[in-house]
UniProtKB/TrEMBL annotation:
Pathway: Carbohydrate degradation. This is Ribulose-phosphate 3-epimerase. Pfam families: Ribul_P_3_epim. It catalyses: D-ribulose 5-phosphate = D-xylulose 5-phosphate. The gene is rpe. Its EC number is 5.1.3.1. A divalent metal cation binds at residues 36, 38, 69, 178. Belongs to the ribulose-phosphate 3-epimerase family.
Length: 241
């Protein structure tokens, strides 16, 4: 029997926060489930952001799970540093490594939840031989590199295909969506099978970030078949995160 769908979680993306006041931005979303941290290297994507030092600083100001999305070439060289810094989840792109199987196993061995991400142009078939090694699948709903872009509507179909794959294999993996997620785009994504909504602009460009998280939670909960639950307690590692 297919395991029950997990509740929908909201993960504000700090890319849209005020980088001069990151701790303050974190304190403005106490009702979030996870905090999403975008790591960009200027090679895999045409933008540069933060490294393990910033993740370690965030670790000191929050007990929320830190959901770290590595948009970097050869992420294998960095996973241990991010694990030491206090990341709870590490997501790597199928397009960024020659050794995806080994890398996902290594992330799990480090005691973290392993995520695998797909760029918009990458087919779901790329997951075929690795999905059993993943705790979450991240479907990029914009081309990675920048916040504030327009949601790509065809990605709803991709979320459906990922959900179908997980059901066929009877896997209880999270399906995370990232890019252009707001109260208009979220319902179709949740209906398609997304269980984690990453939202940057919608949350942090609002005068009331916590209110924006609540609105996303409300529209997600309104979609038939999904539990409209409140925020969970913070946690770490694979179990309970
Ligand atoms: O990974 C990325 C961008 O590459 C995202 O996490 C963005 O931060 C999402 O931002 P919005 O589209 O919600 O503004």
């Amino acid at each position: 029997m297919t395991p029950p769908l997990p509740r929908v979680r909201i993960a504000p993306s700090l890319l849209a926060a005020d980088f001069a006041r990151l701790a303050d931005s974190v304190s403005r979303v106490p009702n979030a489930d996870w905090l999403h941290v975008d790591v960009m290297d200027g090679h895999f994507v045409p933008n540069l952001t933060v490294g393990p030092v910033v993740v370690a600083a965030l670790r000191h100001v929050t007990s929320l799970p830190l959901d770290v999305h590595l948009m970097v070439e050869s992420p294998e060289s960095m996973v241990e540093a991010f694990a030491r810094a206090g990341a709870n989840h590490l997501t790597v792109h199928v397009e960024a490594t020659h050794h995806l199987d080994r890398l996902l196993r290594h992330i799990r061995e480090l005691g973290l939840r392993a995520g695998v991400a797909l760029n918009p142009g990458t087919p779901v078939e790329a997951l075929d031989y690795v999905v059993e090694l993943a705790d979450l699948v991240l479907v990029m709903t914009v081309n990675p590199g920048f916040g504030g872009q327009h949601f790509i509507p065809q990605m709803v179909r991709k979320v459906e295909a990922v959900r179908r794959l997980l059901e066929e294999r009877q896997l209880s993996c999270d399906v995370e969506v990232d890019g252009g997620v707001d109260d208009k785009t979220a319902p179709a994504l949740v209906q398609a099978g997304a269980t984690v909504l990453v939202a940057g602009t919608f949350v942090f460009k609002d005068d009331d970030p916590a209110g924006a998280v609540t609105r996303l939670r409300r529209v997600s909960g309104a979609v038939a078949g999904f539990p409209a639950a409140g925020p969970e307690a913070g946690g770490s590692g694979r179990a309970g995160a």
